[in-house]
Amino acid sequence: MSQIFEYSPEVLMRLSPNYSYPFKNMLDENSSRADWEAQLTAALDTDDPFMTQNWRRERGELEWIDKDPNAVRKLIIKDTRFHHLYIKGMSNFSDAKCLFVIRHPCGHLNSWMTSSEFPKGADFAANWRSGACRRNEGPGEYWGFDDWKALALEFLALEDEQPERFKVFRYEDLVADPTGMTQTLFEFSGLEFVDEVRAFLARSHARHDPNVFSVFRSPTVAGRWRTEFPAEIAAEILAELEGTDLARFTA
User: Fold this and answer.
1) Which has the closest alpha carbon to 53: 62, 44, 45?
2) pLDDT of 221
3) How far separated are the first and last CA of the chain, in Å rounded?
4) The domain defined by 2-250 carries CATH number 3.40.50
5) pLDDT tens digits for range 87-107
6) Which residues on neighbouring strands pair with residue 12, listed in sequence order?
7) Does the predicted TM-score (pTM) go above 0.85?
8) Would you tell me how many other CB atoms lie within 10 Å of the CB of residue 242?
9) pLDDT value at position 192?
């Protein structure tokens, strides 16, 4: 998702400044607008390989993108951590917008289970719900099914209260119709859907790189969990969500 947006000439993308080494936990939920402006300004100017993701470009997982500094007018932060920090931070910037992508919970958990993010030697059956085995890096960590539920409900409520600022969308919808969904997300974000973005969308599905962090993936990855994820855990998850507001994400 971050790379789709980064192909917009109008966008500068940064990955989790508050998790990066230079700005580790610089912000918390009590931070002022001035505190936020200090971190965001520093993130704009950084050449840190984590925040820019250039270390992945050097490994061939992402493409190098030429940017005209004069065309950039929006900073986008991509994060899988610090959700409550960003919700709080939104109150400091009246024109800021938030996109929150929700994946099928079994697909979400399967992605964690099969990646290097899942601690080696830990028992998935004992940790899939709480995510306790991964909570070792301080504030802003979200792992496990209970976090998936709580965050999904919170962002859906925010979308209902402030639809002009918060938008929730399904990962599977993006995979099924990348062009149509990207156009919708760009319109929400006030960005033009340009040829550079359209071309990247075509390239990203044209070949499959098995590296879990690569953006060049077959659309079949969306349903891979159906043959990999423990059936008994999937059954428990689906039963728990049946008839709730979150059942829409298990279709």
Assistant:
1) 62
2) 75
3) 21
4) yes
5) 999 999 999 999 999 999 999
6) 75
7) yes
8) 10
9) 96
